[in-house]
Amino acid sequence: MNYTENYKAIKIDVQAVDFDIDSSIQQLIRDQIDKIGRHSSKINAVDIYFSTEGHGSSAVKIVGMRVGIPGPDVYAEEKGDNLSQLLKSVADKNIRQLEKL
């Protein structure tokens, strides 16, 4: 499932390979963008990638997030089982990178 939306003048592009993103995850994405936005007012785009590595019970979910800002973008990726926790984790990693700029 892929979708694009414009949220508070930030272009959000979500790509999910082999699974659907429900409305609760979409809202969590917006919440995390709000959280990141408190640390940088210059965000113009956020790309989020959801995928799965492996098969069956050994499958691991992967979430990657690129935050587009003037200059070098920041990117973080996390692997695990819980999409909500992974999304929060990559948002926190991107916030730490933005604070270093």
Tell me what the structure shows.
- This protein has about 100 residues and is an alpha+beta fold.
- The chain has a single domain (about 1-100), classed as Ribosome hibernation promotion factor-like (Double Stranded RNA Binding Domain, 2-Layer Sandwich), CATH 3.30.160.
- The protein has two helices and five strands.
- It has a five-stranded mixed β-sheet, covered by helices on one side.
- A hairpin with a 5-residue loop joins strand 4 (about 60-70) and strand 5.
- Helix 1 (about 25-35) runs parallel beside helix 2.
- The longest helix is centred in the C-terminal third of the chain and has 18 residues, at about 85-100.
- The chain is globular and about 40 Å long.
- The model has no long low-confidence stretch (mean pLDDT about 95).
Give a quick set of tags describing it.
101 residues; alpha+beta; 5-stranded mixed sheet; 2 helices
Which of globular, elongated, flat, extended, rod-shaped describes the shape? Answer: globular
What is the CATH homology-level superfamily? Ribosome hibernation promotion factor-like
Q: What's the arrangement of strands in the largest beta sheet?
A: 1-2-3-4-5
CATH topological fold name: Double Stranded RNA Binding Domain
The share of residues in helices is 25-40%
Average residue-wise pLDDT:
93
Structural class: alpha+beta
Task: Report the count of strand segments.
Answer: 5
CATH architecture: 2-Layer Sandwich
Largest sheet: 5 strands, mixed
- Domain count, please report it: 1
SSE pattern:
EEHEEEH
Strand content range: 35-45%
* Number of helical segments with 4 or more residues: 2
CATH class, named Alpha Beta
